[in-house]
Amino acid sequence: MKDPIICFDARQQPLSFWGNSIIRLEQRPDILVEHYPDVDRWLIWYGDYPENASYPLAAHQQVKFMYCVDESIEYYIGSERYLFEKGDLMLLDTFVPHCLLVPEGRSIQYRRYALMINYEYFRLLLEDHPDPRASGFFKNPVVHLQEPVFRQIIALFEEIFLERSSNRIHNRLYAESLALQILCLTIRAALSKDAQPVAKEQDELADRIVAYIEGHYAEHITLSSTARALFVSESTVSHTIKKKLGVSFYAYVTQRRMLAARTLISHGTPAGEASARVGFSDYTSFLRLFKKAYGITPRQIKPTGNSCRP
């Protein structure tokens, strides 16, 4: 059985992560945000999303690519909703909020591979091997790939996991070379004239609620103010967000504020200032929620050099 996550970093050994993160998510899925360990280079994983699980809002310091192997599922990327299906590639720049949608009362079980790359390492790779044709590949967050290239990418993922479990000479180095191949194929495929950009789904009330939260989470946003802005009742807003996202209105607002605060802190903003800027009125409460969400304090967040987009 393959390890669910493989990390290649400067410490020279592949490391596996998963258990602690899943434990934290299961404890309080209503307020927690997805968090992965900081890595110097790559995180590579394969996973089945288990049935009846909760999936919080996520955003990462790493660049993230996901490849849907089967089934189909909806995602919010920012405030726009996309259907993610077999053969699709999702391209997420750093700190882009995204959320898997599991409607209330429905079980899902879909498989995907993912490649996450440390931003600085990613930037250095592209600077060391410049190609003006490679610009703009985050323009379309979801694209459908031609079947031959998609199969080629999945075969490389499988080879990485086989290599990881082997005792061959330089198995780590060889596996990293396969990860580089996946990256190059992904960039080529995303920019190919044969790639088919996936359009966002048609607007519905849940989308307008998420978009309103996205534009106003740093303010004194309430269930009442959101309902008034969208000309619906408070119970309609509450029921709609719970049914679509699996969490309460205020839990989702808290998740979004936490991601925005972490983004600011990652770019050098003092924690107190960051918490106030994203809408937290009480710093002590913010610290408690931050520690519960990420398992670390704001002081332990590693700075990153990319542009700040809370």
Which structural class fits the helix and strand makeup? Answer: alpha+beta
Order of adjacent strands in the largest pleated sheet: 1-2-8-3-6-9-10
How much of the polypeptide forms β-strand, as a percent range?
15-25%
Main sheet, how many strands, which sense, barrel? 7 strands, antiparallel
Number of helices: 10
Return the CATH topology of the largest domain. Jelly Rolls
Based on Cα principal axes, name the global outline: globular
> How many distinct beta strands?
10
- Tell me, what is the CATH class of the largest domain? Mainly Beta
Poorly predicted regions: 9-33
Radius of gyration: 20 Å
Mean pLDDT over the residues: 82
Count of structural domains: 2
Q: Architecture of the largest domain in CATH?
A: Sandwich
Measured distance between first and last alpha carbons:
38 Å
Share of residues in helices: 40-55%
Q: Tell me the series of helices and strands, N- to C-terminal.
A: EHEEEEEEEHEHHEHHHHHH
Explain the layout of strands and helices.
Blueprint: E1 5-8, H1 19-27, E2 42-48, E3 63-68, E4 72-77, E5 80-85, E6 88-92, E7 98-101, E8 111-117, H2 119-128, E9 142-144, H3 147-164, H4 171-191, E10 196-197, H5 205-216, H6 223-230, H7 234-245, H8 249-266, H9 271-277, H10 283-294
Antiparallel strand pairs: 1-2, 2-8, 3-6, 3-8, 4-5, 4-7, 6-9, 9-10
Helix pairs in contact: 3-4, 5-7, 6-7, 8-9
